[in-house]
Recover the amino acids of this structure.
């Protein structure tokens, strides 16, 4: 996997396939492996890129506070390095916050923007959840305890109750002790300070908004604001899911993305 300097951060990434570029930006608790199903699914039709965000995987740690604007600059520098002039940008959770600033900073680089479990500003319940997650990590100082206290917030109650093996895998993945704790603490604050609520009307590219109906982290409150303020947007709600609807309703999510790419790829 190549690693390139993108200004403040070195970024590790993977690339699969040929065709029009699709760029996948993961959330706060993940790394590029969160996108393995999408990489495998779309690589026969598109040039699919997934990176380790700064603070994740093999990319540079985030050892001091940063903003979603800075992370957007990092992603745009990565596109420059890869000679990608225009792409579909898919941002999940924190990745969606980054994607909003990419669309604001470089509208000519955006073929389309897909916001999955995103928000213009974390609302009060989402703020409390993120603050609680950060405090658990600071108090317990190990990822396994953080995962045990946090993983149930990512999925709908029905999924949690009916899929104990899947939940065990999720806890093992996000409980990986190799993850940088200081990066998580700083990026948690990055998410909490994000606010594009007064600039959403400037996002001009076609935008797909995807949301889990019972997501408490990036709730329907934020989804409704995105839908109302981004003029050239469509919204798909996953009625039986929470923050991890890309997994909880995998078939519907892949069909939604497939149809969107077909419709908006030149």
């Amino acid at each position: 996997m190549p690693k390139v300097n993108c200004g403040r951060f070195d970024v590790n990434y993977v690339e699969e396939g040929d065709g029009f570029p699709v760029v996948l930006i993961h959330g706060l608790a993940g790394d590029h492996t969160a996108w393995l199903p999408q990489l495998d699914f779309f690589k026969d039709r598109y040039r699919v890129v997934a990176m380790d965000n700064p603070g994740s995987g093999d990319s540079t740690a985030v050892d001091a506070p940063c903003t979603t604007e800075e992370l957007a600059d990092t992603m745009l520098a990565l596109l420059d390095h890869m000679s990608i002039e225009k792409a579909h940008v898919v941002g999940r959770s924190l990745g969606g916050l980054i994607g909003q600033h990419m669309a604001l900073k470089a509208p000519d680089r955006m073929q389309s923007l897909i916001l999955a479990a995103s928000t213009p500003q974390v609302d009060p319940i989402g703020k409390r959840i993120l603050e609680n997650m950060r405090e658990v990590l600071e108090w317990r100082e190990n990822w396994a305890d953080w995962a045990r206290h946090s993983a149930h917030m990512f999925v709908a109650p029905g999924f949690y109750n009916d899929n104990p093996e899947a939940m065990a895998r999720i806890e093992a993945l996000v409980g990986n002790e190799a993850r940088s704790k200081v990066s998580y603490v700083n990026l948690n604050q990055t998410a909490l300070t994000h606010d594009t609520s007064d600039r959403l009307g400037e996002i001009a590219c076609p935008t797909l908004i995807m949301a889990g109906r019972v997501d408490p982290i990036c709730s329907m409150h934020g989804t409704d604001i995105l839908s109302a303020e981004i003029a050239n947007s469509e919204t798909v709600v996953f009625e039986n899911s929470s923050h991890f609807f890309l997994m909880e309703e995998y078939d519907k999510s892949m069909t939604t993305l497939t149809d969107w790419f077909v419709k908006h790829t030149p």
Q: What stands out?
A: Residues 42 and 221 are 31 Å apart (CA to CA). DSSP finds eleven helices and eight strands in the chain. The first helix runs from residue 36 to 42. The chain has one domain: 3-264.
